[in-house]
Amino acid sequence: MNPSMKYALLLFCFAASIRPLTAQDSIVQNVTARRELNLDGRWNYMVDPYETGYYDYRHQPYDQSPSGKGGYYDDRKQTDKSQLIEYDFDRSPTLKVPGDWNSQDEKLLYYEGTIWYRRVFQTTPQPGRRYFIYFGAVNYEAHVYLNGKKLGMHKGGFTPFQFEVTSLLKAGDNTLVVKADNTRHQDEIPTVNTDWWNYGGITRDVCLASTPETFISDYQLQLKKDDPHTIEGYVQLAGQHSPQTVTIDIPEAGIHTTTTTDGGGRAPVAIMTKKLAYWSPEHPKLYAVSLSTATDTTVDRIGFRTIRVQGKDILLNGKPVFLRGICIHDENPLIPGRLRGEGDCRMLLTWAKQLGCNYVRLAHYPHNEAMIRLADEMGLMVWAEVPVYWTISWTNPDTYANAQKQLSDLINRDRNRAAVIIWSIGNETPLSAPRLDFMSRLAAHAHQLDNTRLVSAALEVHRQGNEVIVDDPLGEKLDLVSFNEYAGWYWGDKLADLPNYHFTIKYDRPVIITELGGDALAGFHADPDTRWSEEYQEALYANQVKMLSGITALRGITPWILVDFRSPRRQHPVYQNFWNRKGLISEQGVKKRAFYTLKNFYDTIAKKYPE
Ligand code: GCB
After folding, report:
1. N or C: which end of the chain has fewer CB within 10 A?
2. Residue 403 lies in a domain
3. Same domain flag for 301 and 338
């Protein structure tokens, strides 16, 4: 855009007092407790590969033109038979929300581009209440309009966002339109190249939330770093910022206390207690917590535990643990598509429990909040990650800002979940100076936002003969040494050679192997030397276990992966057919032989590390 056009646009925005075109920075903590109206269900949609509903024929966005007219977000209806309108939401097909579009219509399986969604809902806004439209996630770029007015834009396919709509909401019918675009771009997070399906659309819940004018917008209540007897954190109010009393009740722990907000609406929390039953996988105790002010009350269920590193050990509530884990993608293989609700999440976490897990790595991006809450309830520790994956544009400041925003949104959403013990800032990022700078800043950011959890990343290894070397300068900034290794699969070795490898690890910290594994087509049986057979995968796991027992600091593993998952990179017509087959469970939910090999290993480990 030339400078004079930019100036004209600025003037126009100012004159029309258009809000900033991005989603609000902070989202309402525990939004389901504020839900006024569930907006899940069937939404009308239009596929728009040329973005005809967004740009005019000179390729100028309609929503920035002075008349603001012409885009699909107007949801216009023909009122006269001579009138020309080239779209009609009412007579367009529907998609289920939440749900990716790829799994709902065969024509959309490979689609990458724009789809418009529309939902009409009825409400009666009450005076003295504030209203927010909340999205659990839209992949990847979402432009959102209510009653023809643009609320804003959000980028990032896996994090929640919201817009305040108090002044736009009408009594009666309201029209919500979303332009969702899942086009991949080099400078985005993730970048163009991933090993998972680029599921597009409104993939997580949508709701209208309502609050009083001054309300509890955010809070953190977690055990203080290294102190099992102090619940520490804050309560943040939005609205009026005159000092107010906040009451915190945790009846089951005999806690009833108050704190006062400062000029910024923030009240510090520090509660001494000796009465807590600590959260652990064996006893995933969650307390009913209620927070209230003169005008507002909100409730949550929160668990309390400490997690820290001491030498080569990971201590949960002061006791050494071994993380018996598995990696999981946000995909229901039976649909196949993104997980659509708590039932889907429960199916995957139940499989993880059957495997003997006390821990899951939710790869490679923030999973649904429902998944984390379920892990809290079912007793599974969680590694939570942002999609800083492979070859990010390390030198682009906007790319960094985007990664940092996604990390902040993840931490802010899940900071009260005892299950989450590790924030991961990325996966398999290749060594270089700009990458080290980018990743170091992310690590510092995670530590600064939350000093009660561990920060890590899945690093890469290098090999010299039989020596496997972990020597990545990013390791200095991380609390754990975590790396992926594919001995027996990408390293192309004879499986029996695996136990001859030895690991040279530069850092004196607990070691977690974040990935290992190999593909097997469920039901394909052969001898253990035959690639793709269940027997090969089984032998690979057996030899991996022998090999890894040589690492004295080993304190956890998350093999790749619980279930086969769809990936455009996996093209072998017989064995893959667009599926990554490293799952221990097939896309039909059938357990492969290696599932039991790993389960046996975990059963032995569980005896060594009683919880
Ligand atoms: C990896 C990646 C993971 C892939 C996996 C594989 O190292 O982290 O996203 O899916 O390998 O199967 O190659």
Report:
1. N
2. no
3. no
Q: Are 227 and 212 in contact (CB under 8 A)?
A: no
Q: Look at residue 181 and tell me if it is in a domain.
A: yes
Banded model confidence at residue 22, pLDDT cuts 50, 70, 90: low
Nearest CA residue ID for atom 13, ligand 1? 195
**Closest by alpha carbon to 206, among 289, 127, 146, 265?**
146
Average pLDDT, the chain: 94
- CATH number of 387's domain: 3.20.20.80
Residue 42 and residue 122 in one domain: yes
Q: How many domains does the chain have?
A: 3
Alpha-carbon distances of 423 from 364, 366, 442, 485, rounded to whole Å: 11, 10, 11, 20
How far apart are the CA of 512 and the centre of ligand 1, in A? Answer: 16
pTM here is 0.95
Tell me if 73 is assigned to some domain.
Answer: yes
- The domain containing residue 296 runs over which residues? 215-305
**Tokens 């682009």, located at residue:** 396
Q: Are residues 196 and 262 in the same domain?
A: no
219/171 same-domain check: no
My answer on whether 280 and 334 are in the same domain is no
In which band, very low, low, confident or very high, does the pLDDT at 8 lie, cut at 50, 70 and 90? very low
Give every strand in the sheet of 381-385, ordered side by side.
Answer: 327-328, 359-362, 381-385, 420-427, 454-458
515 within ligand 1 shell (Cβ under 6 A): yes
195 C-alpha to center of ligand 1: Å?
A: 6
What CATH number should be reported for the domain holding residue 143? 2.60.120.260
Contact 211 CB / ligand 1 (< 6 Å): no
Tell whether ligand 1 has an atom less than 6 A from the beta carbon of residue 537.
Answer: no
Q: Is 428 in the pocket of ligand 1 (CB under 6 A)?
A: yes
Q: What is the pLDDT of residue 420?
A: 98
Residue 450: partners with Cβ closer than 8 Å, 6 or more residues away: 411, 415, 423
CATH number at residue 240: 2.60.40.10
What's the confidence (pLDDT) of residue 68? 65
Does 484 sit in the ligand 1 pocket, CB within 6 Å? Answer: yes
Residue 17: pLDDT band (50, 70, 90) is: very low
**Final residue of a domain: which of 147, 177, 212?**
212
Considering 151, 186, 212, which residue would you say is the last residue of a domain?
Answer: 212
Q: Residue 28: what residue type?
A: V
Answer yes or no: do 88 and 48 share one domain: yes
pLDDT of 195 over the 70 cut:
yes
| DSSP labels, 466-506 | TEEEE--GGGGG-SSEEEE--TTTTT---GGGGGG-EEEES
Statement: residue 201 has pLDDT above 60? yes
**Is any ligand 1 atom within 6 A of the Cβ of residue 427?**
yes
User: How far is residue 540's CA from residue 516's CA, in Å, rounded to a whole number?
Assistant: 9
The answer, yes or no, to whether any atom of ligand 1 lies below 6 A from the CB of 389, is no
300 lines ligand 1 (CB under 6 A): no
Q: Whose CA is nearest to atom 9 of ligand 1?
A: 195
Q: Which of 427, 515, 562 to mutate to test the pocket of ligand 1 (most atoms within 8 A of CB)?
A: 515
